[in-house]
Amino acid sequence: MLEKPYQELAAYGKNGVLAPGQSEELQITYPLKTMASYDSERSMYILEAEEYFIRVGSHSRDTSIAAAIRLDEEAVTVAAKDLLPLQEDLRELKSEGIVPYSYQEEAQEKDAAVRIPVSAKEIDKQVYVYQKENNRMHTNTHVSERTVREIYLKGFEIAVKISIQNS
């Protein structure tokens, strides 16, 4: 099972100015694939076959469960092919031993949540080919003189003109 945050901001909406006692209904949507977790072993973002709780609230400590999405099977949302694998293992931050924020009514909300079945076949998959950086402290840059002039000369000329005008 992949590690997942307790909750993430997936979408938000802004209501209009309301008078006391008034209410307004907001419809907020977001792609389900944004809830995927990264699997570093397989270089993929994955939605595992489980329940994902949709929380609604005015801020992160004021949410309540509005529904639960039940995914029937694992869905890969992004698959990446690494052309230059790392030469050393990365040390990943883990939440082992950390108790996430919770509130008294959470278990009852989870039990009472409306279950929305979703088929993994309905979720789009993207495939990328990429190269991981493997030596951040070393650079090997070859730039033509023309490129350097085009990138830096104009800015240098402007800076010189401004400094002359201000002196």
TrEMBL record:
Q: Which residue range or ranges hold the Fibronectin type III-like domain?
A: 3-60
Q: According to the lineage, what is the superkingdom?
A: Bacteria
Pfam family of the protein (one): Fn3-like
GO biological process per UniProt: carbohydrate metabolic process
Q: Which InterPro entries match?
A: Cellulose_deg_GH3, Fn3-like, Glyco_hydro_3_N_sf, Ig-like_fold
Task: Report keywords, A-Z.
Answer: Hydrolase
A GO molecular function annotation here is: hydrolase activity, hydrolyzing O-glycosyl compounds
Family membership, please give it: Belongs to the glycosyl hydrolase 3 family.
Its name, as the record gives it, is: Fibronectin type III-like domain-containing protein
